[in-house]
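During the reporting period the student researcher (J.K.) took over the structure-prediction task from the postdoctoral fellow and processed the backlog of single-chain submissions. One of the processed entries is reproduced below for the supervisory committee.
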Amino acid sequence: MLSLKRSTKKCSFINIHTKHKFLIIDLSLLETHRNSPVFSLPQAIFWEVRVGEHNQKITETYEKTYSVSRVFHYPWYRGYDNDIALMKLSEPVEVNEYVSPICLPASTEIEFTDRECVATGWGKVDYNKKGADILQKVKIQVFDNSDCHNAYFPKFKISIRNWHLCAGTKEGGKGTCHGDSGGPLQCKMGNQWHLAGITSFGSGCAKPGFPDVYTRVTHFLVWVNQIRELYKDI
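J.K. obtained the following structure tokens:
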């Protein structure tokens, strides 16, 4: 997988295009506080990307670090809404048996509800423990957004909108946690894995009755493809 670093802050992100050097990430990772204004976000020069990361305690032979040349903030991001950004690297990512891009959904109409998908990241495996050194993965189910809205709105006054994606387990115990933000929720369709969501927020760490909330990638496909096309040669 791939990790993103600015000074001591480290997190996950997703490689969606090696030839044109684009990465996708949740925008909240680029700010100090989730509700801070977008204009306070740091510039590309402050970030670097490491691909092929698996064990964060050691430098593996297939890891490589890239600098970031541009950051594209989704213009209507705020708080828990529209939590997505794109980064362009200074050079194409070298593909090998450990590093490859993930497929984007082919259409904005593709639906992942009721599918079993996989979330990955280096986040905490328990709320009271530190983040994992070795990349973790968990199989979870995608639910209808109403399941998350009925859980999050009464308690936290957070509305779950059509740009969100709800996934986890209703009984709790399996899901994402602190440190997993920006990582992929990937669903297998046929013989290929597709990026369904980007880890965004939750109620803690896989609490019963509170599936986690992801950025729904299909909602932003038009914007992502526009940026990729406009800046592919820049």
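The committee noted the following: The first strand starts at residue 2 and ends at 6.
J.K. will present the remaining backlog at the next meeting.
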